[in-house]
Amino acid sequence: MTRPKFHTLALLVALCCAAGPAVAQTTLRVMTYNLLAFPEPVPAGRQDTLARIVAHAQPDLLLVQEVRTLAGANLVLNDALNTGGVTRFSRADWVPQISDPGSTVKLQQLLYYDHERFTLTGQQTLTTAVRDINVYTLLVNDVDLPQTQDSTWITVYVVHLKASTGAVNEYARQQMAQVLMNHLATLPAGRNVIVAGDMNLYGADEAAYTTLTTGGGANPLQDPLVLPIDWNGNSAMAQHHTQCTRTNVLYGEGAGGGMDDRFDIILLSQAAMTGADRLSYVAGSCRPVGNSGTCFNDNILDCSTGQAPMEVLRALYYMSDHLPVVLDLSFNGVVAGLPSAQAPAPLTLRHTADGTLLLDAADQGRGLLERWDAQGRLLERRVVAFDAGTTPLSTAGALPGLQVAVLHVDGRAVRHPYLILP
After folding, report:
1. DSSP per residue over 358-375, as a string?
2. Which of 304, 313, 321, 303 is nearest to 244 (CA)?
3. What are the residue boundaries of the structural domains of the chain, listed by start?
4. Architecture of domain 344-420
5. Which of 42, 192, 260, 268 fits a 20 to 30 Å CA distance from 281?
6. If residue 311 lies in a helix (H) or strand (E), which one and from where to where?
């Protein structure tokens, strides 16, 4: 006798219902890249070379080192990221190097971000004896935020630690790492944190690496990769090396010697590794772009094309003596992702002399208003309704000081920093 099939169907339905509704996931890509004294060294027009690399890697967050000038910062934005019809990238404010004011070589770090996916709510400069550490606070543009009121924050540190071998340079790197860790200790527990950049580390036994990965208090940092202690010149590390893309110095700038160092690194907080605050590391996604592990001690052009096509390898060779490193984070939700060409009616926040927020809107609607202080502490969160035209959003009782208002409407986040005077 044939068993009725409806029992199987009923079981499948029951299992699906028991599992609950599927939760949408969004993949967010982080990329760190030392641009080699951009834009000054020859060949000219390296922004076009960078555009080819970016088009291949597809980052949502780009964390760069060795930008010399504001003009160079704008070339990256306008000619490498927002090109070919793309308009979704913004950059943080350009801040000239503050650390070591007597230095004649100013190499700065900077953040670029997809503003459809993130809102930059703040930035800060940490000073060291060598060069700045740049800190950025980002909010994920979660489409469900007005309903869930569950903000997902990311703190990003972009670093360029002291270069070269020797005890003096190792000590300088460790001291820079300690400055970062001192600031990390001020963040709320369980924060999603990214620490990325050219760390100039030669192995996991360096004091700077130990400082970064064994402290952290409520936000311990982890290396997504489990690797041997020795990195420099270790053929077992071939697929993880990020420098040097060239066997000989090119155009008199950068380094030579071939692929034998892991200088460019991304570290994540425990929360970002595990998904404790809706972001989690995608296992196996952390890698140097273009390095297939087949060009140890050779230039990147000698690598097989298993990881990137030859035109990308060629771009990596001419762009910098470093390789970019990427990793993916999975966000437990859906980001706005509104194409710029289909952007809805504009919304603008501004304020009056007494600190009252004003919202200028083309249409009526509802949104979630948040106010944060300069240290990233939430001061207020409430749902607001607004009409077409100008709507006052009361901030009665607000204490004096710098604040940031963020209004979330239909997956967008409108940011406005303002100062309330005593």
Report:
1. EEEESS-EEEEEEEEETT
2. 321
3. 26-331, 344-420
4. Sandwich (2.60)
5. 260
6. helix 310-319
Rounded to an integer, what distance in angstroms lies between the CA atom of residue 79 and that of residue 72? 10
Which backbone phi and psi does 389 adopt, to 5 degrees? 105, -145
Q: Look up residue 179 and give its two tokens.
A: 């400055």
Residues 405 and 392: beta-carbon distance below 8 Å: no
From CA 143, how far away is CA 336, in angstroms rounded?
A: 5
Coil/strand/helix, residue 171:
helix
Amino acid at the residue 111: L
Fold match between 26-331 and 344-420? no
Which CATH architecture describes the domain 26-331? 4-Layer Sandwich (3.60)
Q: Are 120 and 137 in contact (CB under 8 A)?
A: yes
- Helices 167-184, 207-214: inter-axial angle, 10-degree rounding: 10
Count of Cβ atoms closer than 10 Å to residue 149 Cβ:
13
DSSP assignment of 193-231: EEEEEE----BTTSHHHHHHHH--TTS-EE-SS---SB-
pLDDT of the chain, 422 residues: tens digit per residue: 444 443 433 433 333 333 444 457 899 999 999 999 999 877 889 999 999 999 999 999 999 999 999 999 999 999 999 999 999 999 999 999 999 999 988 999 999 999 999 999 899 999 999 999 999 999 999 888 877 778 899 999 999 999 999 999 999 999 999 999 999 999 999 999 999 999 999 999 999 999 999 988 999 999 999 999 999 999 999 999 999 999 999 988 899 999 999 999 999 999 999 999 999 999 999 999 999 999 999 999 999 998 899 999 999 999 999 999 999 999 999 887 644 334 456 788 988 877 788 999 888 888 888 888 776 677 888 888 888 899 998 776 677 777 888 887 766 678 788 777 76
How does 186-223 read in b/e, with b if 16+ C-beta sit within 10 Å?
ebeeebbbbbbbbbbbbbbebbbbebbbebbeebbbbb
